[in-house]
Hints:
This protein is mainly beta. The protein has 1 helix and 6 strands; from the N terminus they run E-E-E-H-E-E-E. The protein has one helix at about 35-45; strands spanning about 5, 10-15, 20, 50-55, 65-70, 75-80.
Amino acid sequence: MLRIECPCCGPRDHDEFRYGGDASVARPAHDDPDPEAWYRYVYVRNNPAGPHREFWQHVSGCRQWLIVERDTRNHTIASVGFARKMTRKVPA
């Protein structure tokens, strides 16, 4: 059982959360006309073995979007933070 330490509600079973996808993927600019960039953003993902940043929403609790840093090999959670505080890299 995976337990996620929600910053608002404390430790909860993962059943209370909804997986929201890979948090390490940079979204193209809103007005980016390149279909290849959008294709990569929507469909192309790595399948890493090791530390991975993921979006999770606490749907049965505070409804906050979180960023969970989880090791995909053993499900150890290194950190949990609010997604709204996430800093994004702007592509050059």
